Every structure is written in structure tokens, then in C-alpha cells.
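#lab-general

N.A. 3:47 PM
ok so I finally got the sequence cleaned up, no stray characters, all 356 residues accounted for. can someone with queue access submit it? mine expired

B.Y. 3:52 PM
send it over

N.A. 3:53 PM
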Amino acid sequence: MGDKFLNLGNAMLCALLLGSTPMMTGCEGGGSGTTSYNSYADTENYSASLMEGEHVIINLATGLVEPYPQNIEAYPSAMETNTLSTEADEDEEGWDENEEGADYGYDETSEMGYYKIHTYPKNGEVSLNGSYLTYTPNSAFTGEDTVLLTYGNEEDLNFKYISVHLTIKEVNHPPKIEMGNILQKLSTNTTFAFGPSASDPDGDTLTFSVVGNPSWMTLDPATGVLSGTTPNYETNVEEIKLSVSDGILTSSLEPLSISIVNGNHVPTIEGIPTTYIEKNEQYSFTPIAQDLDGDALTFYIANKPSWAEFDSETGTLEGITPDEDSVYQDVSIYVYDGQSLAYLEPFTITVGVIEE
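B.Y. 4:20 PM
back already:
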């Protein structure tokens, strides 16, 4: 038998049979995986790929991936799970009394219509419905898995082997981005810098982008910090959209609106944060901030370590450091009086001993 290859689209499944088998077109199917198989000796080798958390149904009679139904009971009536009689001759090839209760499938439309699961997958669950094999990977599993089946008739269950190799691909998760309370006012002729906190569940490298920012506001694409000097006139800036991408998926903040106003003294902030600390120790830093106008001050932070808590009323950053060596860069603390912003120079927190 020649090689068979399958590629799945959104709603159309097409197979190309090479060698001595004629071409087939218009094969319907669905799903998000791919499958192919090669035939050699007395073994059919099928393969299918799917995303983490998905299911896949393979028609063992054709090697094609089938669309996964919303209601499995609505599938063809031939998809009935069967168990061969335990009264079969124990000397019959392929029969083992110790395998009573193993999954069997019977396809009444085929002369050689008996299927039996010989070796179960290590990282998922399978079931047989007629000639249809359903595979569901274990929760959060990604990688390779294999199912081995035998195929034949009631007299010879080991007429042929079918090996199904499954590749489960990791799902990419979108990055997270937040900025707490959004700044609404800045004074004229004021130097500013502020940015979000962002993280990625998969640990992917993040890149920031912005649209709608005025010419006097620039973005650091590596940290997401927006900085610049406000103009010497009052103005309103709306629809500044800050986004972060992991290279595949993008997450965005709600659009920012900022007013530039006159007549306010910029608050001050100072302090020397601890930049090196051992593992599993208490970390605490509180900056000193003042405002000549007596305005209420609110503190913000960018690139906060995941193990730390931040108090927006006092600016205190504290928490228990992790039990592994790590480095947290570009931690920035800002203070805001409702109109103007002041900030500490970004700093790095090193936890544990970092070998060079």
C-alpha cells in the first residue's frame, strides 16, 4: 500500500493517496490536527497532532481524523463499543483470558471489522466506537503518546497491528498587562515616566507597543515604560493604547486619557531600595515622598516581582523572596499627586547567589 497523507482545514479534510492508489478529493473533516500514516509489513502506522486540551477521533478504517461531534451519541450507529465473548477458545490467536474487559470495537460494515486496544497510551485516555478511536490527553499534558491496536476478525484478532502516534502541542496563553489606577493629569513642562506590570504564563519574552501617543511621549518596547516631558501648554491627550505581545498573542490596556494642566508643584520621591537579598527572606522598601501643595499622593509600581505586595498609599514594596536564584529588573516606583508624577530610578532586585 502506498503512503497516505492528510491535512486538516477549518471545515474541509482532504487526503492524497500516493503510489498505486488513485487520488481522492473532497474528503470532509474538521478539527485542528493533522494525521498521516505509512503501511509496512502487517502494521499500519497512523499519526495525528492536536492541541493541548483537545480531543481527536481517528477512523481506523481510513486513517483519517474525523470531526469531533458536539454530541458523541449522534455519531453513526456503527460506532458501538463491543466486548468479544469470553467463551472464545483460549487458544484462539489474539485472545487472552487475562484481557477480559479490554476495549474492543466492531465495525459491522467491514468484513475484518474487529479492533482491540493492545497497549493503552501513557498520557491520555482512549475508547473505541466501532472503527473510531477517540483520544483525550491528560490535563495540561503536551508531548508524544502512542496507542497500539490489533485488527482482524473474530477468529484472528491479530491479523494486523495498528500503531497510532499522537503529538499534543502546547497551547499558547496570552500575556497579562495591568497598570492599576490610570494617571489622568500631568503638569506642563514636567518630566514623567510610568508603565504597566506585565507577565506571561508561558514565560515568553514580551514586547510592548503603543498607538495614539503624542510626539513628546516615547515608549520603551522592552519594559512598556512611557516617558517624556510634557509641553508648556495645556492640552488633552486621549486614546493612548498600550499593548504587550508574546510574539503570537497580544493583550492591551484600556485606552488612556491624560490632561496637561498648569499650576502644580511636582511631588518628590527618594529612597535607596535593597537590590540584593538572600532566598526565603523578608524584603521591604518604603520610599519617602512629599508634596509642597499638600496633595494626596498615590504610589504606582511597574515590573513588580510576583512574590511581593505593593501598597499604593505608602509605596511600600514587601514580601518573602523565592527559594531559587532570580533577578528582577527595571522595578520602578512612582508617586502621583493627581496632576504631576515623580519617580525613582528603576532598580534591580537580585535574589540569592547568581553564578557568573
